[in-house]
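DM from R.C. (forwarded with permission)

"hey, sorry to bug you on a friday — could you get me a structure for this? deadline for the figure draft is monday and I only need the backbone to look sensible"
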Amino acid sequence: KLLQAFLDREPDAYLFSPKQAERERNLRKRQQRKTPMTPSQKKRKRKKHPQKSAGDHYDTASYRRAIKYGIAQLNKQRARTRKTLIPDWFPLQLRHSRATELNEMFGIEAAAVSLGHAHAEVTKVYAERNLKLAIEVAKQVG
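My reply, with the result:
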């Protein structure tokens, strides 16, 4: 149900678009405006080649920025109501968590293949040490 509103696109199109999100945000801001727009603002022309513009899809950097922005906005609301703030969170943490989980379940080689690494040595950076295995070994070996 949550994603239903976004499923109106072509099958090969990106599901989420920073450009569309920015358009919707600007529309909301215009609708919530309390003072009328000045005539000079209405006459203002958009820049032909702006230095920054939202892309048609998220990449790793824009995804990270969107998450950071969302957490900051939510924390502003939470601070006003004295609720616990959400700690900073990064998408790369998902990769680390998955690598650790796969390492614990199937071993470092399976985690490496799943993450697309050619060598398991690279995966060791992502996967936390398997402390459960170390405890089990200590119990059995002494």
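R.C.: lifesaver. The mean pLDDT is 86.
me: no worries. The first helix runs from residue 18 to 31.
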